Amino acid sequence: MNTPLAGAAAGQNYGGDAAGLICAYRMDGTGPAQPIDSVQAAEWLLAHGQEEAEAPATAPAENAAPPPFLWLHFNLSQAQAMRWMERHAGLPDAFFEALREGSHSTRIERDDDTLIAVLNDAHFDFAFEPFDIATLWISVAPHLVVTARAHPLRSVDALRTAVRNGHSPRSSVALLEQLMRTQAAGLVDIVRGVTQRIDGIEDELLAGRLDHKRARLGVLRRLLVRLQRLLAPEPAALFRLLQNPPAWMGAEDAQELRDSTEEFSVVLRDMQGLQERIKLLQEEVAANVQEANSRSLFVLTVVTVLALPINILTGLLGMNVGGVPLADSPHGFWIIVGLLVVFMPVAAWIALRGPRDR
């Protein structure tokens, strides 16, 4: 028997209960998911897990009713989460090895009759910073899906909201496929947000307002590089899985899993296009800065060239020696000033004629 109040508390608990369980649902693909707590999940696994493990793995019959399964979502920041999974979930060693090693390479691979997935996703409070990305570890079996994370993530939280509002995947693989599609949709939003920021920077560049656009472009480019590096699934692992899926995985589930990974490929190509665009903008900003520096250096050079004869002449006339020209003339000062006034325009015309001709 389910306890509605306990189940609702488990569904709404964001940080996790005493066992580190953020949420838990029982699904059969025919109706809304039923929220349960950690005690009920342990009882269900004890009653059904051994039976599922001992039964021979066979391909699901066509049009057969999907078997019920649990989705357990854990917060790894709580030490009890790992202990609960080791004690009650019966997960394969490969899952715990991935957790302990901190593996962050996005992949989906098979370990006997269990699927082990490592997905990287944006933080729940994503602020377009390169380090606002964390890892979600997933174990998928016919009767159990376990997801674990150390930081709140956007995609899995969106999936929680959908399940809480009545969405119920028909199978455990369908839940994994829905999670990947939700993540792909979140990446589309991130790419759209980055595109808007790049458009704003480009408008400012065209308007001649340089300010700090080079630093902002650098942050966006590092973000896209990190997203592309962490989110791109390993093609070899996925190819091996699709070529040799577990016996309990249906053909429809395998095809939908393949389609969800193709959505990732489309988003990653868009990211690569944005990186090229940012690179071109950075080159344009650098060219503008170099042009401004060259212009300032030219002005400084012209001023130095024009002032050099004046400095030489005043230095010679200021020497404390005999024979200085016009030293005894009452109009000597004005004669020298007149010569400088005539020389300055001529020197300026000679200095500026070259650039204008070019």
Automatic annotation (TrEMBL):
The keyword Transmembrane belongs to this UniProt entry's keyword annotation: yes
InterPro entries: CorA_cytoplasmic_dom (IPR045861), CorA_TM1_TM2 (IPR045863), MgTranspt_CorA/ZnTranspt_ZntB (IPR002523)
Membrane topology: Multi-pass membrane protein
Location within or outside the cell: Cell membrane
Molecular function in Gene Ontology: cobalt ion binding; cobalt ion transmembrane transporter activity; magnesium ion binding; magnesium ion transmembrane transporter activity
Main location: membrane
Membrane-crossing segments per the record: 297-319, 331-352
Superkingdom, taxonomy of origin: Bacteria
Keyword Zinc: yes
GO cellular component, one term: plasma membrane
Record's keyword terms, sorted: Cell inner membrane, Cell membrane, Coiled coil, Ion transport, Membrane, Transmembrane, Transmembrane helix, Transport, Zinc
Coiled-coil zones: 264-291
Pfam family, one: CorA
Family to which this protein belongs: Belongs to the CorA metal ion transporter (MIT) (TC 1.A.35) family.
The protein's name in its UniProt record: Zinc transporter
